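Posting this for the archive.
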Amino acid sequence: MSISGFTFIKNGEILGYPFVESIKSLLPIVDEFVINIGESEDNTLEIIKNIQDPKIRIITSKWNDKMQDRGYVYGQQKMIAQFNCTGDWAFYLEGDEVIHENDYEKIINTCKKYKNDQDIEAIVFDYYHFYGNANSYLCSPGWYRKAPRIIKNSIRSYAPDGLFWLILDKNKTGRYPRAVHSNATIYHYGWVRSEEQMNLKSAKVQKYWGKKSKKIDYKEIDGNIIKEFKGTHPKVIQNWLPKDSTIFKVNPKHILTKKERKHRLMLKIEKMFGLELSKKHYKLVK
């Protein structure tokens, strides 16, 4: 059995992505790591070359800035990397996502167990979305709690955007993949970066959704969805993390948006009926 890691990245240095830590977290369990590096304004390409791991295979690309429809350029760049994977499984990890070393065995065993199971097309992970600092994460149906990150590399799949896959059956109609849970977790640190870096990212990428960038203020969020993290962070990311020792404090006078009010209602329904209402881009079958 073989596993290909893959990702895409552009301007990783100036946008504050922990992309080196992300790559290093996955290298121990993959046979190759395909990295599609977009033409950047910083030293992203050189930084990745300096990792100097023989598993890394670099592709360079130029993004189509005219493609500004719902983030589809992210799907394009994701698939450029995936189409170059040669493993039985293809493991997609974004530049602000990290794997915990405690989960390596779970991931490998899941891949081995379902390699030849035709009912299983993808493998799902739980998520920690850290916010503001390393001690705080978000728990809300507005933030996906689970997502497929490993896809079987022998089936016809494509990505409408960076987040998920569709499977093409014989009639070429797209559907979400049939999946099994890995019992492992992905640690997402995108919202731990400085507000300055996040606002620069917004200015550079919102155009790919046909939107204008809006100023990001971390404190303007529903404080009810911020929870204290009591676990351990992956070793590879610990030196990158800010050194705050308390849970992130929001603006106590924050006015809830329409979406936040909706998500509060959904949280109440979840608690009342034992449901999990966040978006699922997969069909869990085992």
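The chain has a mean pLDDT of 95. The radius of gyration is 19 Å.
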